C-alpha cells in the first residue's frame, strides 16, 4: 500500500493522511467518517498494525463528522493495536465528534488528548 493520502472517488468526503513520527503512526482523517467512507480509514489503520506500528495516533482535528460506523472502525483498530501490544490515541477532537464518543461511552476506552502534540508527548 502506498503511504500518504488515501481518498475515494469523491475527495470531498474523506481524505486520510498517514505518516510516522518517532514510535507513532499518525493517521489524520479529514472530512466525514461514515458508512460510505469507513474503509478509507480502516485500511491504513489495519495496515499500520500489520506492519508492526501498533502505537496509533488518530489526529481528529480535521474530522468534521463521525457516525457509529466510524466509531466502530476506531474501536476495531484499538482491539487490533492492543492485541499487538500497542494502543490507539485520539487527538484534537472537534466538539461534534467528541459528542459521539461521550454519548456512546467510547471515550472511556480510548486515550484522548487535546492536541496532536499532547498525544505525541505521551
Explained architecture:
- This protein is of the alpha/beta class and about 120 residues long.
- It contains 4 helices and 7 strands; from the N terminus they run βββαββαβαβα.
- Helices cover about 35% and strands about 30% of the residues.
- Strands 1, 2, 3, 4, 5, 6 and 7 form a 7-stranded mixed β-sheet that branches.
- The longest helix has 16 residues, at about 70-85.
- It is globular.
- The N and C termini lie far apart (about 30 Å).
Give the topology, please.
Elements: E1 5-7, E2 14-21, E3 24-33, H1 38-50, E4 55-59, E5 63-66, H2 68-83, E6 87-91, H3 95-104, E7 111-113, H4 116-121
Parallel strand pairs: 3-4, 3-5, 4-6, 6-7
Antiparallel strand pairs: 1-2, 2-3
Helix pairs in contact: 1-2
How would you sum up this structure in a few lines?
The chain has 122 residues and is of the alpha/beta class. 37% of the residues lie in helices and 31% in strands.
Total strands:
7
Q: Give me the strand/helix succession.
A: EEEHEEHEHEH
Distance between the termini: 28 Å
The outline comes out as: globular
Features:
single chain; 122 residues; alpha/beta; 7-stranded mixed sheet; 4 helices; globular
